[in-house]
Amino acid sequence: FLQEGRISALMWEVCQQQAQAGSPELQEALLNKIVCLPDHVSNKLQGKNPAVFFPQNYFPLLGGAVIQVLQKISDSLRGKIAGGLSVHLVYLPIFSSTSEEILSVLVPRLTDLTKSDCIWQRICWRLVECVPDRWMEAVVLGFVQRALGVKADVLSRLLGNLVVKNKKAQFVVTQKVLLLQYCHTTAVLQNLLGYLSLDSLRRALLIKVLQELLETWGSSSAVKHSPPEQQQYISKAILICLSHLKEPEIESCRQELLTSMMEGVKCHLDSNLPQIRRLGMIVAESISSKINTDGPVLKFQVKILLLFSPHPILLPRTLFVVLAKLGGRLDDDLIPYDMSEDKELKIKAPVYIRDCIEVLTGSEDVDKWEATVKTLESLVRKNPAATREVSVELAKILLHLEEKTCIEGFVELRQRAQVAVLTTDPIPVSPSLLSFFHLRHRQKFKQLKSLATQELSYPKSHRKTKHSGAQNPCIQLLPGSDSSKDWRRIVDERIKSKTRRFSQAELASSPNEFNSVVGHFFFPLIQHFDRPLTTFDLLGEDHFVLGRLVHTLAILMYLAVNTVAVTAMGKALLEFVWALRFHTDSYVRQGLLSCISSMLLSVPTERLLQDMTEELLETQSWLGDVVEKDPDGDCRRLALQNLLLMENLKKKLKTVPS
Q: What is the pLDDT of residues 302-324, one digit of tens each?
């Protein structure tokens, strides 16, 4: 039956019956049997199915039969056009759950046949318009994914104005593919939106799609609750839509675009995730360039600093060349200075801590100021007694210190000096810095505490030596770093370290200096987090600060291992996490899950079982919900990691009486 081409003869007969108003029920039954024939044969033959009935063989053959029937329909139309007759097309058995294999044969063939033949274009349009709604999504997606061409002209030839005529197809194209799904490639987006832009009837849908995309892009709820991958997908769709807009269309919706841009960029810049903020800036710049072609446009720029020397006479020729290029021309007649016999001027740095304070607060000598900034860390570490006399004052000066010159690595130099002061005299300096926990310095404060805690928790003998082999994880918290990525690495390394390898030499043990000061670092940060202050509100709009606070607490908890206060810290941290576990911001939730990891790794197992049994059981249930329901992939990954850590406690938890 198959090898003799009877399947195409059967479909052709069905088409003829449709033209003669044949029985729709019979036609439907026959078409369903054709589609399901491999299943019926397999059920009858019980595993002895011929290879031609395997789906990977049968459906491409069926696709070829469809092309043969369509060719007969084309020939029939050409013969009857003069007499005004028409052959009514019916949907063929190409659209079902197995349409993928059929379309892989059908779409390339129809693409070639519709290039310059209007009859074939009409056949194709009528074919897709007759598809039942239950199969329309599979058909549209199949054509969109396979009919890739320059400027979407192939898809336009194959589908015509299907999205205008069919409500189901319109829903799939304008809603489901763009707003409810985000798995399609950029090429599919370009093909789909390009298809909408190629016809005047479809361009109205393009404008509607852009408005709905911008509404979603500018929704603070969508930015908070949808995964970054979906937001990137929507941003790409917006940029593609903007590229297809014409000037009259932009003029008609200019104010709406401006309003959407302002609302959307605010939502994105408020996000704690760097990739979301970047997406907001990119889309906002694109919208601004579209609506302000003649005037100023929105531009997010990274500050560029030119490295000018304080002594112009010593400027090398290279800098003059750079400056000339920046000015738009290059002066080839510029004669370089002969610096072959010049010697670098050496500025003597201060040797006393109080002299450093004087230079940093009042000196106008920029060379001396630079030398002081470069030498301050080593000076503090060499003179701990002198540092303790002025530690609070010096810490405040460094916190407010701004860059006077373009000194290389200024932020790192300042940070290292601050860490040195904080580790030298932690008890008075820590609460002093906490009093400056306001809008401008709150991030610096958390970073300093994290770095100082790390240093204090490591033995002195290991601070100045380079590790080889198994190393302690190094936590870098410079501006712009992603703490959640660091924590995934840290937890992985800590879990690996639980496996003892007897070939490795044990490191010499020494007291944990963090033990005596851990409370001064941890508890002032965790208390009163739910009380709004004049300068900020952690549970309100300052969720970015809350996210940093949570990650800092996780670091402090992790480094408090083997300290006396670790159990009390773990209990307080677990209560803190429980109060915020349903926070809407994904960055905050990532930090909370990092806190759980730190607690499980740092608090002794017996203390966990005795002091926090019920809390751990509740936490385990919550982690299971996060793994199943949280929209953020990093949160799901961290929750699963925590469940694996808790698995080690599972047997002990079962033996504890309720």
A: 333 322 333 333 333 333 333 33
